[in-house]
Specification:
The chain has a single domain (5-441), classed as Thiolase/Chalcone synthase (Peroxisomal Thiolase, Chain A, domain 1), CATH 3.40.47. The protein is globular, with a radius of gyration of 21 Å. Helices cover 36% and strands 21% of the residues. The two termini are 39 Å apart. The mean pLDDT is 97. The protein has a 9-stranded mixed β-sheet with strand order 5-4-6-7-1-8-13-12-11, sandwiched between helices. Helix 6 (205-230) crosses helix 7 (251-268) and helix 12 packs across helix 14 (373-379). The chain is an alpha/beta fold. Helix 4 links the parallel strand 4 and strand 5. The structure holds acetyl coenzyme *A (ACO). CoA binds at residues 208, 252, 256.
Length: 442
């Protein structure tokens, strides 16, 4: 198959959010800590009516209806998530209930998980299936979704929730650039979920931030090396990437990630004219550079204009929804396609940086080769973000407490108000005495 990649995508996010300015006041932190310090405006969240299966069903069913795709045409379905509600039964198998009416039960693929990276691995699997001798000519769906919740404290404002459904196949408008890919994986305890009785991760915030930056270094460098070897690029750098979409735990980290790519360009070609202002960092070793705030700030300043052009348009969803773990980088892509008209995207290269704690990371890219405006209008991102319901921080806290109390519940009927769910949303009706879950749809 030729030009394998993303044919279409749609996103799902909860109908309710908490405002980050109000959350700063409520939490008694200094004004600007969440909005400027983390770069976040709003945070989406779910009550006990939504779980990972319902979020995925909402994303998939709405995708199929909006784009008019038949379940009978799908030969592979991959799910990337780290929101685990069952240690054995995959979310993919729950999604198979959506296929029942079509009579199509011959659907390969299963869940893939490692923190925020599972969706990327799922996408690679789907694209590789279509490109391989195993392909049977049908299309693939990739679902990346998570409910990101943290214990109250410094990490809580970096939560969020959302899911994305992606159609993968040949002759795609966004063709994956095989084999341009730089991957970095290592063993690190920066963010993990060892406590099965809790929905919350165990997080070493500062370590997770350094790990993200180290993963940028390694995977971006590996990507540039591939550009040099495979695409014969001379002195490859950020100038070879028209747009760069990042995994966004919060948008401030993305600003730092972009600046870090420029730092890596500087390390490769310190004499390049663009680096006149940062020569004082020539002798700083890479190890020393991690904690160096002066260096970080200098590269953020140096890259302001490039960041505004190449990355800022991809942050609309992240800033207004929060972290969506596996889905975050694809919400970045959805934002970019929504914010930049096809006339500007036509023929351009879009690079993605995916990071999952623990850690797994890849930098890779797509080439835009056909009209993306239908995707943008189908997603309708800005309007949907504007049409949500604002909830006070006090009520948000009550809902977080409810989720905490009812995590792993058995013989339980959720109490959340279904009136505030949007049409088309799947919701949890009941968990029976054997932990079997029943769902309805608004
Ligand atoms: N106005 C403006 N900026 C402010 C203000 C203020 N009033 N107060 C603080 N800030 C700035 C700080 O200077 C700091 O900026 P810097 O990053 O440029 O140094 C930033 O806000 C963050 O503040 P800190 O006090 O350093 O950190 P905090 O205790 O708020 O925790 C953290 C931040 C560690 C990211 C926390 O939210 C967390 O643990 N989140 C979860 C882990 C995470 O998301 N990691 C990222 C990668 S891994 C992943 O994707 C899950």
């Amino acid at each position: 198959a030729e030009n394998v990649g993303i044919i279409a995508l749609d996103v799902y996010f909860p109908s309710r959010y908490v405002d980050q300015v109000e959350l700063e006041q409520h939490d008694g932190v200094s004004a600007g800590k969440y909005t400027i310090g983390l770069g976040q405006s709003k945070m989406a969240f779910c009550d006990d009516r939504e779980d990972i299966s319902s979020v995925c069903m909402s994303a998939v069913q709405s995708f199929m209806e909006k784009y008019g795709v038949s379940y009978a045409d799908i030969g592979r379905l991959e799910v990337g998530t780290e929101t685990i509600i069952d240690k054995s039964k995959s979310t993919k198998t729950v999604l198979m209930r959506l296929f029942e009416e079509s009579g199509n039960f011959t659907v390969e693929g299963i869940d893939t998980s490692n923190a925020c990276y599972g969706g990327t691995s799922a996408l690679f699997n789907a694209c590789q299936w279509v490109s391989s001798p195993a392909w049977d000519g049908r299309l693939a769906l990739v679902v990346a979704a998570d409910i990101a919740v943290y214990a109250s404290g410094a990490a809580r404002p970096s939560g969020g929730a959302g899911g994305v459904c992606i159609l993968v196949g040949p002759d795609a408008p966004l063709a994956l650039e095989f084999p341009l890919r730089g991957t970095f994986m290592e063993h690190i305890y920066d963010f993990y979920k060892p406590d099965m009785s809790s929905e919350f991760p165990t997080v070493d915030g500062p370590l997770s931030v350094t790990s993200y930056v180290r993963a940028v270094d390694h995977s971006y460098t590996a990507y540039l090396d591939k550009l040099e070897k495979v695409a014969a690029a001379e002195d490859p750098s950020l100038s070879d990437l028209d747009y760069v979409v990042f995994h966004s735990p919060y948008t401030k980290q993305v600003v730092k990630g972009f600046a870090r790519m420029a730092y890596n360009d500087f390390v490769r070609t310190p004499d390049a004219a663009a680096f006149g202002e940062v020569q004082q960092f020539r002798d700083v070793s890479r190890e020393e550079s991690y904690g160096n705030k002066v260096l970080e700030k200098a590269f953020i300043n140096l890259t302001k204009a490039a960041f505004a052009a190449k990355t800022e348009p991809s942050l609309l969803a992240a800033r207004n929804i929060g972290n969506m773990y596996t889905a975050s980088v694809f919400f970045g892509l959805a934002s970019l396609l929504s914010q930049v008209p096809y006339a500007e995207l036509d023929g351009k290269r879009i690079a993605l940086f995916s990071y999952g704690s623990g850690c797994a990371a890849s930098t890779y890219s797509f080439r835009v080769r056909a009209d993306t405006s239908k995707i943008a209008s189908t997603i309708g991102l800005a309007t949907r973000l504007d049409n949500r319901i604002k909830v006070s921080p006090a009520d948000f806290e009550k809902i977080m407490h409810l989720r905490e109390k009812t995590h792993n519940a058995q013989d339980y009927e959720p109490t959340g108000n279904t009136d505030e769910l949007l049409p088309g949303t799947y919701y949890l009706q009941k968990i029976d005495s054997k932990w079997r879950r029943a769902y309805g749809r608004i």
